[in-house]
Every structure is written in structure tokens, then in C-alpha cells.
């Protein structure tokens, strides 16, 4: 059974940083593209970032480009999202997701999802 578990969320002031982690139980993790999505209260889930199996290239939503960095550690079945210069509009539940093959910015393309971790940015 595939499991994805996010951690690292919390409360931070605007301008601060957080690092999210996603631990997975995926066998042959290196064959999976990984992604981060987020959902703010009253809004639809949106794409944040995705990373190929080999870690390059990476893709970002325009709203986070230059502030967030996605990375992965295939040896330890882990994925990360370094979030810098956080803004109140980054407040959301952040989800990690996995799909076999190529990366995608479309949520339904992903077969596996974590439960999410809350990120709250105060102004």
C-alpha cells in the first residue's frame, strides 16, 4: 500500500521560510514524478511545483517561482519543498502527490496523495 506523509507545516510570519517534507513508501520511487499542490480555504486545489524522476527539470506555478524550490532524494524516497519569502496568500493545506512517469501540473493525473500539512503565513 502506497503511503505519502507530509510534514514541516506550521505558522510563520510573512517573509519567513518553511521546508516541507514528503515521506513515501513507494517501491521504485525513482520511476515516479512527484508534485506539490495546495488548497486554501474556499478555493480549489492548485498546482505548486513538480519534479521529474531524475530530479531535473522542475516546474513551478508562476505564483511561487523564484521563492519555492522542489527537490527529491531518491535514495531515501523523500521529496521536499523549500518555501522562502512566504506571503499570507501562501496560506493553505499543502499536499504531496505521486504519479508514475512524467510530471504533470494537473492534479487528477496523480494517483497517490498525502493527507496534507497546514501552512499559515501571518501578515
Structure description:
With 123 residues, the protein is mainly beta. It has no helices and eleven strands. The chain has strands at 4-7, 10-13, 18-24, 32-39, 46-51, 58-60, 68-73, 78-83, 92-100, 112-113, 117-122. The strands form two sheets. Strands 2, 4, 5, 6, 9, 10 and 11 form a seven-stranded mixed β-sheet that branches. Strands 1-3-8-7 form a four-stranded antiparallel β-sheet, with no helix packed on it. The radius of gyration is 13 Å and the shape is globular.
Please render the helix and strand layout as text.
Blueprint: E1 4-7, E2 10-13, E3 18-24, E4 32-39, E5 46-51, E6 58-60, E7 68-73, E8 78-83, E9 92-100, E10 112-113, E11 117-122
Parallel strand pairs: 2-11
Antiparallel strand pairs: 1-3, 3-8, 4-5, 4-9, 5-6, 7-8, 9-10, 9-11
Instruction: Give the H and E element order.
Output: EEEEEEEEEEE
Radius of gyration: 13 Å
- Return the structural class: mainly beta
Distance between the termini: 40 Å
> Which regions have little confidence, pLDDT < 50, spanning 5+ residues?
none
Could you describe the largest sheet, including whether it forms a barrel?
A: 7 strands, mixed
Amino acid at each position: 500500500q502506497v503511503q505519502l506523509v507530509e510534514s514541516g507545516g506550521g505558522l510563520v510570519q510573512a517573509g519567513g521560510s518553511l521546508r516541507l517534507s514528503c515521506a513515501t513508501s513507494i517501491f521504485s520511487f525513482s520511476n515516479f514524478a512527484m508534485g506539490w499542490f495546495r488548497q486554501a480555504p474556499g478555493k480549489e486545489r492548485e498546482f505548486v511545483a513538480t519534479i521529474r524522476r531524475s530530479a531535473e527539470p522542475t516546474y513551478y506555478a508562476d505564483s511561487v517561482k523564484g521563492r519555492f524550490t522542489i527537490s527529491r532524494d531518491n535514495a531515501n524516497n523523500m521529496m521536499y519543498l523549500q518555501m522562502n519569502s512566504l506571503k499570507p496568500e501562501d496560506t493553505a493545506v499543502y499536499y504531496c502527490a505521486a504519479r508514475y512517469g512524467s510530471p504533470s501540473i494537473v492534479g487528477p493525473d496523480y494517483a497517490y496523495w498525502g493527507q496534507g500539512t497546514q501552512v499559515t503565513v501571518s501578515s
